[in-house]
Amino acid sequence: MPAKPSNRPLLSLVAATLAVAATAATPLSAAHAVNGSPLSAAVSPTTVAPGNRVALHLRGCGTSSGRAASSAFGEVRLRAGSSFDSLSGSATILRGASTGVHPVTFECGDFGGTRVTVSLQVAPGAARGGEGGSIGAVSPAQIAIGGTLAASALGTGIWILRRRARTS
To answer: How is the chain classified by DSSP, letter by letter?
Structure first.
């Protein structure tokens, strides 16, 4: 009787694919400790074209308001979010914003509070219409992840079919 083929290479490929997909999907964020409690900020999406919107989140301030400022969108007031100690807001990227990396500085309270800075990538392109700008551009990383997942599914299907053909 022939030796049973191992699923170990297939499982390793699936695990690696899921790990890459998880890291590519996370928003860009930064963390900083304030009085022992972690201060964290995030911008989502991390890459955006002029005219599109970004969500801004700040957690750990212990205040009911804050602000975020960047050369990509100006200054935005952050309000208390849905959970305790969470501030949020949104901003529209200026149509004239230069492409490249723009720092986004989050500040607890109105002025003079604790600050944390994250980066926002402004990509060339125009705002998309028709869907209200809710659908952003597809990044090369997303294309690579999708291609890897499709190739993995195809390879798994072929492997199963060949295995069935051998056992019948």
So the answer is: -PPPPPSHHHHHHHHHHHHHHHHHHSPEEEEEEETTEEEEEEEESSEE-TT-EEEEEEES--SSEEEEEETTTEEEEEEE-SSTTEEEEEEEPPTTPPSEEEEEEEEESSSS--EEEEEEEEPSS----SSTT-S-PPPHHHHHHHHHHHHHHHHHHHHHHHHHHHH-
The number of beta carbons lying within 10 Å of the beta carbon of residue 91 is 22
The two tokens of residue 81 are 């979010």
* Length in residues, the chain: 168
Tens digit of each residue's pLDDT (9 = 90 or more) over 39-51: 889 999 989 999 9
Give the pTM.
0.54
